[in-house]
Structures are given as structure tokens and as C-alpha cells.
Amino acid sequence: MDVDRAPRAWIRLPSGAPLDLINPSPQAWTDEDLAKRLARTFRWGGESLWAWPLSVAQHSLLVLELRRAWADTPLPVGEQLAELLHDAEEGFLGFDCISPLKRVLGQPFSDVADRLMRAVSLRYALPDWTPEAHRVHKQADVVAAASEAVHCTGWSRDEVRDVLRIEFPVLDVDPLQAIYGGMAWEPWASDVAASRFLAELKRLTKAR
Q1: Rounded to whole angstroms, how far apart are CA atoms 82 and 76?
Q2: Cβ neighbours of residue 161 closer than 8 Å, sequence gap 6 or more
Q3: Is the dihedral of CA 29, 194, 21, 206 positive or negative?
Q4: Are the C-beta atoms of residues 171 and 32 closer than 8 Å to each other?
Q5: E strand or H helix at 11
Q6: pTM higher than 0.70, yes or no?
């Protein structure tokens, strides 16, 4: 293939560095880039009952905290990183694509997202999911989604079950409130979400 005609999709990151979404380098971004991008990428199409939409950064911290709370023994650092970064590619895409829409968008979109996630996995040396770890991860991810839908976005509990087809329960207690304070289920401002996500990322990578 002519190199000049190879598919490219460059974005500029907060640090000023370029990232090619089609052929991402694992070293193209800083931790601060990733934290800011995830804090500026919103879930639920940006819809919110609050002053701010819910960011992917805050969602990622919620899923991580659920996995920690459910574990019988301390969660290995590698698994904690995998939980924290499970949606990291969305920060670079700037788009939290729900699973039903991913199926409609098809293989080209999945390929781009997968390449970005592979770059993240290489950068942070993420472990492969075991079947059991992935099962519990998906449960935490969906429980988080059900709870966000009600408390952050305004879906009713019946709609979560009947429209969104989520059978997992909606949490009443916000696991992040005990850690960070504030009002239960309130989405954080982007700079706050970025700072908290970055602090956790640096803590885990240092523990590695």
C-alpha cells in the first residue's frame, strides 16, 4: 500500500502530541492525556440530571471500586489496572458507544476500537482476562450502568429493566461517595474527574 495513501486519522491530545487513531502507538500519549480525554468523554450521550454529564473517567473509577468491594481477597494490581482502563479507548475516540450501536456500526468501528485498546494494553501491560475475572467485570460494569441510568440520567428502574434490558439491580449507595465525598451519584466536573482518575492510574502503575 502506498504509505501516503494509508488510512490515517490524527487527533491532537491535550499535551499537544498527535495520535493516529488508525495506527495508534502505545507511547503516543501521556497519562495526563488519557485522564483528561476520559474526563471529557461523556456517558449516556451527555444526558444528565445534574450540572455535569457523567464522564467515562468517573464510570471507570466506579467499576474499579465495585470490583474491589466484591473481591474476597485484595484484587491484584494488574486486575485493578484492567478495571480502571477497561474503557480507555473511548477517551481517544471521544465517544462512549453503547454495545447495540457498536453492532450496527459494524466491523470497521470495532477494528479501530480494538486497535486502540491493544495499544492501551501494551502501554500498561494489562493482564488477559480470565473467564471468571471477565464475568465479574461485566457484572460490575452493568451494575454501574444500571445505577448511573437511574441516578445520573433519569431512567426509571422499570425502564432500566424493560427498555435497556438490564436485569442487574440498581445500587442505592454510591460507592464513590465514601471515598471522595460530595453528593451521592453527582457527576464530577471534568477537571475533578481527570484529577481523580490520574491519581488512581499513577498509584496503580507505581504499585506495579
Answers
A1: 10
A2: 167
A3: positive
A4: no
A5: strand 10-12
A6: yes
> Which residues lie across from 20 on neighbouring strands?
10
Q: Looking at the domain assignment, is residue 3 inside a domain? A: no
Compute φ and ψ for 10, nearest 5 degrees. Answer: -85, 140
How far apart, in whole angstroms, are the C-alpha atoms of residue 87 and residue 41?
A: 11
The verdict on residue 201 lying in a domain is yes
Task: Give the integer Cα–Cα distance in Å for 59 and 70.
Answer: 17
Give how many domains the chain has, as a whole number: 1
Instruction: Note the pLDDT tens digit of each residue in 52-110.
Output: 999 999 999 999 999 999 999 999 999 999 999 999 999 999 999 877 888 899 999 99
| H helix or E strand, kind and range, residue 191 | helix 190-207
The answer to the question of residue 6 being in a domain is: no
Nearest to 59 by CA among 87, 82, 34: 87
Structural domain including 194 reads 11-207
